[in-house]
């Protein structure tokens, strides 16, 4: 994946890469919500999207009991099977807390 911050890209190319990444993140988050419906885990991929997924305790206000947060590149690598859940946790590229925060049964959403 080309980083939007790559100095080799022109400003218009960086903008196009950012839009592509935003669309891909939002789509894969929607796919996760469809295959793991619920409100027990909040999945955050700032600045592009956030969803609630996984059956269990319903979260209504404040910080949810289970939270997963990562950057766009890591999320897309997880969603497409280019990165394993445990590897992302071990490397510190993924932060997950709460009893239902393990999304590995739902990933990858699709193969690269």
UniProtKB/TrEMBL annotation:
<dbReference type="InterPro" id="IPR036527">
    <property type="entry name" value="SCP2_sterol-bd_dom_sf"/>
</dbReference>
<feature type="domain" description="Bacterial SCP orthologue">
    <location>
        <begin position="18"/>
        <end position="109"/>
    </location>
</feature>
<protein>
    <recommendedName>
        <fullName>Bacterial SCP orthologue domain-containing protein</fullName>
    </recommendedName>
</protein>
<dbReference type="Pfam" id="PF17844">
    <property type="entry name" value="SCP_3"/>
</dbReference>
<dbReference type="InterPro" id="IPR041629">
    <property type="entry name" value="SCP_3"/>
</dbReference>
């Amino acid at each position: 994946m080309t980083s939007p911050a790559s100095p080799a890209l022109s400003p218009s190319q960086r903008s196009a890469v950012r839009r592509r990444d935003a669309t891909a993140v939002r789509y894969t988050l929607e796919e996760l919500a469809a295959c793991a419906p619920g409100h027990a885990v909040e999945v955050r991929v700032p600045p592009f999207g956030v969803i609630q997924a996984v059956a269990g305790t319903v979260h209504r206000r404040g910080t949810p009991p289970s939270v997963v947060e990562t950057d766009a590149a890591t999320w897309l690598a997880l969603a497409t099977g280019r990165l394993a859940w445990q590897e992302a946790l071990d490397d510190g590229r993924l932060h997950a807390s709460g009893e239902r925060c393990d999304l590995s049964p739902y990933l990858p959403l699709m193969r690269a």
